Write the structure tokens for this entry.
Amino acid sequence: MLVRILCLYSICELFLELYKGAVTNNHDKSVSVIDGSTNRVITTIAVALYPTGLVFDSRNGDIYVANDGDNSVSVIDGSTNRVISNIAVGVAPAWLAFDSRNGDIYVVNLSFSTISVIDGSTNTVVGNPILFSDPLGWITYNSGNDKLYLAVQQSNSVSVINGSTNTVVGNPIPVGSNPVGVTYDPDNGNIYVTNIRSGTVSEISTSTVVQPPTHTTITSATDGNGNPVQSGGLIVSTSIIFQVTKYQPYSRLSM
């Protein structure tokens, strides 16, 4: 089970994976590794300037650390607790999210409001940065629909990124004032957003609701005995099995 604890102003992030955790030490340029069974630090790993957010890649077992003051992401081998790569990204990288379906890591660069995408299999930046015009907050991945949800502070909204195309889809979702934190609940499929200025938490439903069809073409119908229903409508069976050829679902949210 994966447990994550995030601290916005003390700039820390804790992951527990198989009883091991990691915490970024923003002013010490390091990451502390905690044994989850004893709650004791077992080693400290030197990274770059002002490490902020980090994320665990469940595919390769590596940990990715955003170094705000170095414009880079450090890659730590989870089996050896050693830095194996430093990847140049945008300016002031802070928050990260891992897409378990495509294996990519998404890096929020606070300056110039961009998203860098790292291929977890090669540890290289792929494609062009995803551009935004407003200051950005945290980002989270929804494994239920393969989309990423990004808090956009100044516009008081959450933007949705399609993980298969790395493009923004749909219209921004309005939330409270100055959204920063965002996380995904795999149990109910909802996204939770902290709105700092309004002092609220917004809940976004990402489930799809399918309505019964209103205009359906019925190609055949039989009664409970398997006899065809008369097309003239003179006889109507009280037990009918419909075979539907087409229907039009709709979603509760536009994403």
Summary: DSSP finds no helices and 23 strands in the chain. The first strand starts at residue 3 and ends at 7. The chain has two domains: 55-205, 211-255.
